[in-house]
Amino acid sequence: MEKRYYETLKETVYYQKLANGLQVYLLPKPEYNKTFATFSTHYGSVDNQFIPLEETEFITVPDGVAHFLEHKMFESPKGDVFQDFAKYGASANAFTSHDVTTYLFSCTNNLIENLELLLDFVQEPYFTPENVEKEKGIIGQEINMYEDNADWRIYQQTLAQLYPEHPVGIDIAGTIETISGITDETLYRCYHTFYHPNNMLLFVIGNFDIEAVSHFIQHNQQQKTFAEPQQIERFEVQDKTQPLGKKLALTMDVSMPKVMIGIKNQDVDGIHPRQQLKNELAYDFMLDFLFGSSSKNYDQLLASGVINDSFGYSQTNDPGVGYTLMSTDTEQPEAFMEAIQKIVTTFDPTSIEAPTVERFKRKNMGQFIRSLNSVEFIANQFTRYAFNGMNIFEVIEIMDEITKEDLVQAFDNFKNQDNWAYTLITSAE
Amino acid sequence: MKYNKMTINQTTVHLIQTNKFKTVAMQVRFQNKLDQATVAQRGLLPFVLRSGTAKYPSSAAIQQQLEYLYGASFHVGVEKKGSLHTQYFNFSCVNDKFLPAGQTVLADVFAFLGEVLYAPKLTKGSFDPQVVEQEKRLLIDKIRGIYDDKLQYSLMRLVEEMGAGEPFAIRAYGTIEDVSAITPEQLYATYQSMLTQDELEIYLVGDITPEQVETLILTHLQAAGAEHYESRSRSEKVITEVKHLSEAQAVTQAKLILGYRTHTYFGDENFFALRVMNGILGGYTHSKLFLNVREKASLCYFAASRIDGNAGIMYLYSGLDHDKVSDAEKLIIEQIDAVQAGQFSDHDLEMTKLAMKNDVLEILDSATGMMSFYASINDMGVDWNVEQWLQAIDAVTREQVITAANALQADTTFVLTSQEA
Predict the structure, then answer these.
(1) Does B133 touch chain A (CB under 8 A)?
(2) Same domain, yes or no, for A206 and A276?
(3) In this predicted structure, what is the pLDDT of residue A422?
């Protein structure tokens, strides 16, 4: 295996790409009790149009398939996979995002047995018309649970406004209606296309013996046969629509109105992965500068009563999809929107001072090092970044390169209010 | 990992030395008796202290200093445990060993903590009325916000009804009315009382030495006011009939919560048996609730149980279609009946013990987990190491599990639904 040591973080990562295309990363943490393993495919809810393996035409699959597939993987011909993990004292789980599906377990014992379970259950699909039907009741309740979650709905609706033509605007789980059209055959076609080892990444972090684990993984994979690795043909949607400040209002039973501003970043295509990571960091710095809890703006928003502790912002900059979200619970949603607009229109980016940028570097560097206490954070973030050709352990080095000019550039993308949309949730009455 | 319990300056200090983390984590706890009359003021106080000091007079100035200290995190709040009410001040900072050469933050973090605790921003000898008003609004909004999380809200309603008149029904932050009524002067008196009447306890986790800790505490912190308050409290309530409550809201999914008395408390001889029983019933994905209510009957996405060892309570909860609530309730009660009748295999028992042991070892992989583990050990009044905790799980027998299940007593059921009763 190839060994990479990261001096500032004092972490060593071992890497190998197997003959079947599977990328394997091992990160030993001998001080920990547990080992955490994730087995991920670069496949999520946005992959709804593609050419299935060994076919020639694009197909469109029902919304919610990737997530449905994730649920159904936990059934094997022998029964319930959770039970198998429980037998070895491990807890297993899975999650589906817009572009990644991850299966995982953590354990403090029987690592090889648990790893074998993980690799085998994800690589042995078992779908029948009956078990697919039965799952619709369970996922239906999961969808209903999110229906009642105002924070989830405002997030979902804002994305839908920013991306009317891109599948990122569609709920990951689909709707009760769309999942009703899913069959065992749909699941198998998606499975065979996207669960090829060449499209997957295994990350193991924790207390284990490198040699033994590496040997076991290779051995396990050599026992199985897969089709020749192929480039997956995904239909790449380009959604350059402008939301033009439109507003969507929903009613739900909430204690106080909720408002979210979505800001689309149109400049997200064809950027080198390293530059993209740098852009993402610069965006964070810029947002901290404008709205962070250490800013004057934040103090004023609090003092004027238009925000409370629920106020927050986040940004995503992936290939083809980029957006910033800002939200709060407030009795004055209109005043909140106006206040944010005003901050942006009157902001003079040349007022950013170098010492402030340095302070943000210290803050972000420290927060990143703190987050490395979590093996879950490392595995999940490493995987997400790796699928996009980036390396999370380079963050500190890239952070150090950020200058005032990068913040000004980020603000330039951010300020055009034609790329803004608003979502409101109020209670009926 | 090495656990040290020390008394420095009348303060109980729990230092867990470990090189597992790249950080030093600290929890500073001011504790007193849980009392309905003081919860709101004690709940507000940490937020007011966090919003300005003499040296860092605004919230922005405080945040800037934290950013400068390599993004040290600083969280405050209150929590309750049995008959105790705790105001906590939590810090986490990068261990100096991982900072660029020549940089240090730990001593600065302690100095900052001292500043927050002992040198608040004052106007005319009391807290700034504007700051107090702002923090009152934020706390009230936080209390109101519980309504938006329908599961949390339903659990809170169950606790209120089930525990009426008992300490565990008191809300850690009090009620909106209590918070609204607070004046800066009252709050300042509460602050004085915190310094002079509370027990002070500090947990620290990281790669630091007892000598370092002693120096930092003696340099930056003052002596505690009181020695020790007991956290255990037992319910004397006699339950004669099961209360059934329901509330209508415009929700897509109904929530069903069942509250049981366990008659078993933290530190009791059969407490571990109760925990194993809870694991077999509803703690895991191999448990009866998950297997039968979710997987077999497809009624829900989640069905689980959990226990509160300080209050002697078990909660069972699920989210369902409105017209499936009574089917689910019946099915959930059948699962309890099954455990009471001993209808679980040795394999079920073993899987649950394995999962519980795994949980403990995994908890010890996080700094806050280490703190809560040693807090539990101290609450139980024992002097155990990890191995002894694992042995206590292993020692639980099938008969003890059945006994714990049969001690369960149904108390209250709460349903949140869109249907009018």
Answers:
(1) no
(2) no
(3) 98
